Amino acid sequence: MGHGIAQVSAAAGHDTRLFDMAGDAVEHGLGRIRANLDKGVARSKVTPQQREHTLARLRGETDLTAAVTGADLVVEAVPEKLEIKQALFGSVAPHVAADAILATNTSSLSVEAIASALPNPERVIGTHFFNPVHIMKLLEVIVAPTTSEATLARTLAWGTGLGKETITIKDFPGFATSRLGLVIGLEAIRMVEQGVGSAEDIDKAMTLGYGFPMGPLRLTDLVGLDVRLHIAEYLAQALPDGAHFRPPALLRSMVAEGKLGKKSGQGFYSW
Predict the structure, then answer these.
(1) Residue 76: which residues within 8 A CB-CB, separation 6 or more?
(2) Whose CA is closest to 228, among 209, 210, 212, 247?
(3) pLDDT digits (tens, 9 = 90+) for 190-204
(4) What is the pLDDT of residues 256-266, one digit of tens each?
(5) CB 112 within 8 A of CB 85
(6) Among positive and negative, which fits the CA dihedral 49, 50, 51, 55?
(7) Paired sense of beta strands 138-143 and 124-128, if any
(8) How far apart are alpha carbons 69 and 75 in whole angstroms?
């Protein structure tokens, strides 16, 4: 997700730094951005000038201090582990202003819990993007009880400037999109597990029968089976009526086998 968020930020005119601890990961992210822009030019969705201006506003970094110093807004897109997100923002906080927004791309974790370990928790907010970021129009903004009105207003303005449609959701497990989308995805996995139909036919039922732009199993491959497993485990515990979020055995076994979806080359589909 990180490279996609960086791309739309730079395309909207913001000087943007893309950080990862590993240099090859940074180069991979920048390469994916260039590929996205090249494809946009080939399809006449992006002009050559827009491509060059976007790339000119991007810089890759493997040094966290250099990446965040002077930033008005820092967006994290690290794995869905509370302690990892808290630790990252804890390392960022000393190098940014007290009113610099710390935005988490979490799809299910408590924004308030992330903020609780940080100074100035009023500047922490959720910014849940959707994959692929440069195409998907929605930005789900999650407001914790500690989030200030000023932080919300600035975040909504930033999101609108990226060309996104924003929705504002309270900080509740699964928010709006993950809670609704995951329950459909898990049921689709159970149907494959039970032999109801193939992944292709179950997906086709939802795209052609219900007008979904993408079937729930193909979407699971795109999001990552491991990511969906983490979210399902969290929601099954966090919600009082969370039994229907209990992960199917098929999901657990596929993750254990390294079948994580598009990023590993194999999930419910071969990529």
Answers:
(1) 85, 88, 89, 102, 103, 104, 105
(2) 247
(3) 999 999 999 999 999
(4) 999 999 999 99
(5) no
(6) positive
(7) antiparallel
(8) 13
